[in-house]
Amino acid sequence: MSVGIKDVARVANVSAATVSRVLAGRNVDLAMRERVLAAVRSTGYRPNLAARRLRSRHTNTIGLIVADIRNPFFTAVSRAIENLAYSRGQRVILCNTDEDPAREAMYLQLMQEERVAGVILAPTRDGLANLTRTKPDYPMVLIDRAAPGIAHDCVVLDNGTMSEMLVEHLHDRGFRRIAGLFGATSRTGMERRTGFEAAVQRLGLVAEAIAVPHGDGEVAEIMADLLARADRPQALVASNGVTLLAVLRTLREHGLSVPDDIALVGFDNEGWMDIVGGLSVIEQPVEEIGRTAMAMLIDRFDHPDAATRKVVLAGRLISRGSSLSPISAPSPSVTA
Fold first, then answer.
1. How far is CA 25 from the centre of its chain?
2. What is the pTM of this model?
3. 147 has pLDDT over 50
4. What is the three-class DSSP state of 239?
5. What is the Cα–Cα distance from 124 to 145, expressed in whole angstroms?
6. Nearest Cα to Cα of residue 334 among 289, 286, 281
7. How many CB atoms lie within 10 A of CB 34?
8. Alpha-carbon span 166 to 86, nearest angstrom
9. Which residues have CB under 8 Å from 93's CB, separation 6+?
10. Do residues 164 and 120 lie in contact, with contact meaning Cβ atoms separated by under 8 Å?
11. What 3-state DSSP class applies to 317?
12. How many CB atoms lie within 10 A of CB 40?
């Protein structure tokens, strides 16, 4: 015998309308929400998604589209978003674009066809340009990347300032020849490159900023050229966790040690970074980014005509052994 919303309402001792509101992810008192979800579990209720789609313009599903699921930043943010969605009784469709605008457009169309309640998107650079000209019929929150003229809520890191912080850190440690590797296909990479170049100019350093195409093998080729130079860099800056790992792997393949032969810093803080001797990085507030994005999307459900908002968050510098030099202090530190 099938279980319906009225059965759930009877077990939870609430109205059927309240059950519907909880299942739709609408604002409901937290204690009441927990009571309804407990009743859903105890009765084994399963909503008829096909019927719900016919009755409603949107489903109780959130779309999450990230640029590169290999990037530990996106993995951590996705987890934070999914955890919050789950606590609200919402489902998440996760898609990965690999920084490909065509795939991004396909997934955005998929979200339209699936009638999702809303989308959280880390757009490609070309995708950002498209968003200034088009507007989907579902609310959208951008993470990690934004641009002037975008009519969507967004939550981003202060990329330029954080990149400047890394350069200043290397300068304070005595490094004067620095190279930076920045993603060529993302606005995040562009913003971090801008911060890198601003700090280099201000501090009078000998430095080079290199655009890295998205894809396996690109970092190895660029690194081979850098390491073959007579005046190779004393230190390297990697603009994301995937590039940082690729740089470290390439250095080891060339028989070079960090930091004895060359210093290395970057973005994103993962557990393995301590194991390999300690990498100095900018740690992003991934949990806060995920929570903020979900909160902004939920607010947009309830206030569709409100003014768009942009939240800019700061990271923190975690200083470890990979940026040590002969003039460096021996002990690691964390700078908020």
1. 23
2. 0.75
3. yes
4. coil
5. 8
6. 281
7. 14
8. 36
9. 61, 62, 63, 64, 110, 111, 114, 116
10. no
11. strand
12. 22
